[in-house]
Amino acid sequence: MKRLSATVLSFALSFLASSSTAGGNASASSSSAPAIFGFRDAAAESATEARFIAVPDPKLAEEHLRILTQAPHMAGTVEDKATADYVAQKFRDAGLETEIVEYRVWINYPSEISVDMTAPTGVAMHGPTREHVDKDPFQDDPRVVMPFNGMSPSGDVEADVVYANYGTPEDFEKLDKLKVDVRGKIVLVRYGQNFRGVKVFVAQEHGAAGVIIYSDPADDGWKRGDKYPDGPWRPDTGVQRGSVGYMFEFPGDPTTPGVASVPTLPESQRISAQKSAQVPKIPVTPLSYHDVWPVLQHLSGPASPREWQGALPFTYHVGPGPAKLKMHLKQDYQFRTLWDVIGRVRGSELPDEWVVAGNHRDAWVYGAVDPNSGTAAMLEAVHGVGVLLKSGWKPKRTVIFGSWDGEEEGLIGSTEWVEQHESELANAAAYFNVDVAVSGPKFGASAVPSLKQFLRDVTKVVPSPKGGTVYDAWLKAAQPDASSTQSPTDAIGESRRLPAAQMKGEVPVGDLGSGSDYTAFLQHLGVPSSDVSSSGAYGVYHSTFDDFAWFKKFGDPDFVYEQQMARVLGLEAVRMADADVLPYDYEEYGKEIAAYLDAAHRRGEDKFGARVLDFGAVNNAARHFQSAGAKILAKQRNPPRNAARLNQALRGAERALLMPQGLPHRPWFRHAIYAPGEYTGYAAVVIPGVNEALDKGDSERARQQLAALATALERAAKTLEGYR
Ligand SMILES: [Zn+2]
């Protein structure tokens, strides 16, 4: 999954003073090797890392990708199981203790899906919706699943159509102003700007009877560039599948919030899918622009606001009607088996402290980019770890690689595993995610602030195919002149939310919202997490054309970015597993939170006027947290011989930011600083309790959430001070 667009939220974000170069200041290393933050003996660690970096191999990554994508492998199918077996074998070959873990989860496959235009008479849709281009070696496989939306209910609806642009709350407000009523209508929205589940959630709130989501050529088709197979952009018949589950309520199996769906779970511990807050109440299905063309063309009513105009060659009107659609959706919902593959290397000194790296393996169809560019990279990272193990390397902490299943349906494999291992993960040092590892050459990363400098440091020792290091290329692309042109993938796009004012001369590391498998680790359990990718022009997301042929032609023909991402992911795990002192930077974290609070304070004053909300206590708590972060950072730079207490304090800090009661109305999400927005989906909302209360104009709730946030920040500050 993991895509969808960088809707820019209004809170101004942080920016960080450049002083917090945690790795820049030397630790007490006696050797001449450059210091590595967190290590007493940088020379030994550098030697280990150099041996690791030499291993990941472009040719082998290509072979992994070719094998993983030889057949469609949607979660729960026999082909999915075959990919699990392949990954498990590679894990074992590298010397990892390996198991395939099963879960029983409630998901749908499509059984009958049709959308017909019933008015005006004499106009037909272009259908059928089968995806087809002139030349593609994979498109005719009968196992390609027909386009559908995961977690849509079954349903039959016939109604007039209303066009609602991207289906944001603001778009629906505009329809209200135009006096266009969507109640009982089929709402037609385009992909982009927000998570598709949010479009459905908002349409449902407004009383729509059904939703069609289509890909407009303005967003990822011909308006962007040549379409597949001549170029990387979406062809006329390309359809974006995807889950519309309300994952911002809770992710994972919709029938087991907070509980692992192990095969032995008694029925009595499941909730009914009909009652699950994750499952939409109205039917939803996706279409191509080829199919939607005559529908949009036959809408009358007011002309749409000009920014709603897509790239089809006529003026878009909002309706309602006269175009009328008949949706017939029959979903085959069942409890199906998923397979996570878990490989582990036991830590030699701190076996109970887990460092987890993971990627999902299931795909809507072939999934060459999403997700198996990540799987191929992860397998080459595992290859590197295997070579280290054979040379006698023993990680201090336990290293675990997870190949998650069912991510596309709702982050299911990772969420169930996290829920199953909640107590062990209480000691985890980090979770490193990769989903779409490679769709092009532009490196990007998101992380909790405590890991941002760690990521910058890791990329400083990984070579870039462009010459220099990954960090150099990243920094070059981040310079103001380069970043002012929008990345070509943004519209479909990467959901990295970047600090509005970036640290001068430093690379931007985004914030984690949701949309991939770090969600349960970070937002349910408070495990410090990151996500990395290398992106480019990519218009075949979640279509059958995201296949090996596309990848070889447009994604990474020589697999050198695959090699790069294998090195980055593997090095994150190796370095974190070996560190004497955990290389977190809680001063940078504190600065970011202070900036979030400043922005929220201004929003609060705009909303309610001055002095309605008292930010005194929470600002004090944030200052306390930041100064505790600065003090422990000084200690980390000069670590004591026995760093156990220091590490314990560091490990506890992120977890101390969890609020036991969770966010209002969605207790599964417990992190006080980051959550997926209820109205943004993938994109992060920062200090979500406070900001969402402000969105709602609820000053009482804002007061409660400010108090809960202050408590969490004080708890985290005291945790950081606990090493003394
Ligand atoms: Zn994905």
Summary tags:
single chain, 724 residues, alpha/beta, Aminopeptidase, Glucose Oxidase, domain 1, Transcription Elongation Factor S-II, Chain A, 3 domains, eleven-stranded mixed sheet, two-stranded parallel sheet, 22 helices, globular, disordered N terminus, binds zinc ion
Q: Number of helical segments?
A: 22
State Rg. Answer: 25 Å
Q: State the CATH class of the largest domain.
A: Alpha Beta
Bound molecules: zinc ion
Helical amount: 25-40%
**Beta-strand content:** 15-25%
Could you describe the largest sheet, including whether it forms a barrel?
11 strands, mixed
Structural class, by secondary structure, is alpha/beta
The residue-averaged pLDDT reads 91
- What is the fold-level CATH name, i.e. the topology of the largest domain? Aminopeptidase
Number of strands: 15
Distance between the first and last residues' Cα: 43 Å
Question: What number of domains?
Answer: 3
Q: Mind telling me the CATH superfamily name of the largest domain? A: Zn peptidases
Question: Could you name the ranges where pLDDT drops below 50 across 5 or more consecutive residues?
Answer: 3-31, 482-501
